[in-house]
Amino acid sequence: MKLLRHFAEPTRRLFLMRTALPVIGVTLLIAAAATGLLLWSTIQTDSVAAARQKSLVGLIMSKLESAVAHDQESVTVWDDAVNALRGGDAKWLDTNLGSWMHTYFGHDQVYILDANDAPVYAFTDGATADPGSYRAIHATTAPLVQTLRARLKRGDTEGVTEQVLTIGASEMAVIAGHPAVVSIKPVVSDSGHIAQVPGQEFLHVAVRYLDGSFLTALRQDYLLDGARFSWHDKLASGEASYPVVDRSGPIGFFVWRPYRPGAFVLFQLVPVLVTVFGLVLAGVITALIGFRKRTLKLIETEDRIYHLAHNDLLTALPNRGQFNERLADALARLPSTDEQLAILYLDLDRFKQVNDSFGHPAGDELLREFADRLRRLTTDADTVARLGGDEFIIIRRSVGGENDVKALCEHLIESARRPFDVAGVQVFVGVSVGVAVAPKDGLDTVELVRKADVALYHAKAGGRSSYAFFGHEMDLTLASRKGMEQDLRNALDASGQIQVHYQPLYAADTNRMTGVEALARWSDPERGWVAPDLFIPLSEEAGLIEKLGELVLRQACLDAVDWPIETLAVNVSALQLNNPSFAMRVTSILLETHMDPRRLEIEVTESALSERRSECRNNIEALRSIGVRFALDDFGTGFSSLGRLQTLQVDRIKIDRSFVQGFGRSNGDEAIVQAIINLARATGLSTTAEGVETESQCDYLRKLGCDQLQGFLLSRPLPKGELQELLGGVSARASA
After folding, report:
1. Which of 603, 539, 551 is nearest to 577 (CA)?
2. DSSP-assigned letter for residue 222
């Protein structure tokens, strides 16, 4: 209290001279220093930002010629292009070598020269043109053509890499009054099976203007404000420029207004800083006057702070720190009492769905209500603590035996099953419990909690809303799971362990094979064949599902690209669909394997299709736009609803095998399947029945109007070789 009296007892003049003025002076000095530092930072930030944008433009220009050449290689290294040119297929040339380059890559002019450098095709101003229009750029391209012909004749491959497939020639030039990139590439065979005389190849000439769509891309993709092209380096105030250079020197300049983040922030902060400095000064004065009162309030709240440090803020239960203290104390007393103590590790089931559906406030309300239920189910001698999230833990002292703990676990599970009133609605969750008992499972605090956590993991794995007591075999099981996870990681990097098998899909009316479903299979050197029900969920938990999915998709596309089937079905998880780059990766694999997107059918669950996340929707829309189809897998399980079929973006639904296997029983499965098929037809969807194992099931599904059949009756999943033999037999019977 001496400090408080120091501020309360001196006269007003002494307080002003000894305390107020020095503090106010220091405050003003700090404000002046902060203002100076802010101005200096503004200048430096703007300078660095402008330099970086200039470097960015320089990088774009340095890569521009190679980018245009790379665009050309998508159509010039192609057997079909060579054959079309030799055959004079004008429509094919226009579609693939002309208009495609304009619409997809933004090339403004395209010409094709024959072996005598005479133009045989021209595309300018967005349409096919007279090949004679090539004369307008002949003077510019002639040296490039001559140089490229000479290199081709002598077999020069300098510069050819895995990324650069053929040699070429390019430069900056002025074309039709536009600054432009001119790039020339030979049209060659990608397979090497077409004979071509070196130097006599057709040449593909591409012109990309730098003052049209390219400027738009600079403004939109690289945020170059006011980007424009100028023939002269005349800049307005605040503008920057970068020269466009051909072999003889600059032909013009890119001009833009560099983004000045420092000045922008400073402009926004000036009124705020003035206000803040004023408020700080007023606050300092007010703080000096009110120091004694606030200090007393701090003393009064000391007990409250101590309470918060040892208790959970949301539920008022003991927190992890207080739990550890109480557990250590209880374990220390245990040897002298000859009693048992139980640790119950609790984790709420489906809590994440409540948070996602109703928001975090509803989740907090549920946690508070669950904490109250735990209090009512335990005694004052017990400790109920919240470790964080939806994890709780109970110390049960003076345990009478295992049956006593089992009864408590059952009461806990039953209590969690009762509905919770949150956000004005009733929600249903559950709880899983893991139990460790001292001294049987040890007397070390950390080890005892770990064993209860291991038991909780097994309770969840065995089915939610259940409990499990720790057993030493659980550690072995957990270690085995970790070992399997590591083996799966190694298998994904090894060759031959992860294989793709194919289960045929048959048309119900003609019994003709119309497609296959690609299925992942794992052959471990020590374990042998590992069941998909084991390693597929493991790959999702371990974050390996995307790598596994890409491996299966790539191999399936490579295998099936030439098979005489209409559909290749591949399963995809919700985790893959939620990756923003999923559609791009699938498209890349389709291009890499030359697989027709219209033959690919991605099978997903309804929960994945119902995702509200924009990444999932964007991926589906992007893939559907290029022709990829989607199928709803295992329809009839989970939260499936007949009424929601018409709202899902799918082309086919797969009727779950459980309905097919239920035919002939008194559970109404035939009526359910009939309803699914009728609604699918009404909404323009195809249907596939899974799990067909008997002739009677097959006949009945045909009568119901199902489109496709799949199951062990027709064929089990087959490795590539056996499926090719089956396809060969089908083709032979068809030709006979």
Report:
1. 603
2. S
Residues, the chain = 736
Query: According to DSSP H, which parts of 135-185 are helical?
Result: 135-153
Q: How far is C-alpha 466 from the geometric centre of its chain's CA atoms? A: 33
Asked whether 244 and 254 are in contact (CB, 8 A), the reply is yes
CA angle in degrees (0–180, nearest 5) for 440-444-449: 80
Strand partners, 230: 253
Nearest residue to 54 (alpha-carbon basis) of 43, 62, 65:
62
Helix (H) or strand (E) holding 343: strand 340-349
Q: Please name the amino acid found at residue 132.
A: G
DSSP, collapsed to helix, strand or coil, labels residue 663 as coil
Q: What are the φ/ψ torsions at residue 508 (nearest 5 degrees)?
A: -65, -35
**pTM (2 d.p.):** 0.46
How confident is residue 598, by pLDDT bands cut at 50, 70 and 90?
Answer: very high
Helix (H, G, I), strand (E, B), or coil: what is residue 189? Answer: coil
d(CA 230, CA 208): 17
246, 277 Cβ separation under 8 angstroms: no
Q: How far is CA 128 from CA 98, 102, 179, 466, 601, in A?
A: 8, 11, 22, 71, 36
Q: What is the DSSP letter of 188?
A: B
Q: What is the pLDDT of residues 328-361, one digit of tens each?
A: 999 998 888 888 999 999 999 878 777 766 778 8
The H or E element containing residue 506 is strand 498-507
Give the bridge partners for 181, in sequence order: 172, 208
State the DSSP code for 201.
S
Residue whose structure tokens are 């099931």: 697
- What is the rounded CA–CA span in Å between residue 456 and residue 379? 23
Q: What is the dihedral of CA 199, 202, 203, 204, to 10 degrees?
A: -160
- Residues β-bridged to residue 146: none
Give the other-Cβ count within 10 Å of 419's Cβ. Answer: 10
Q: Which tokens in the block code for residue 109?
A: 């002019």
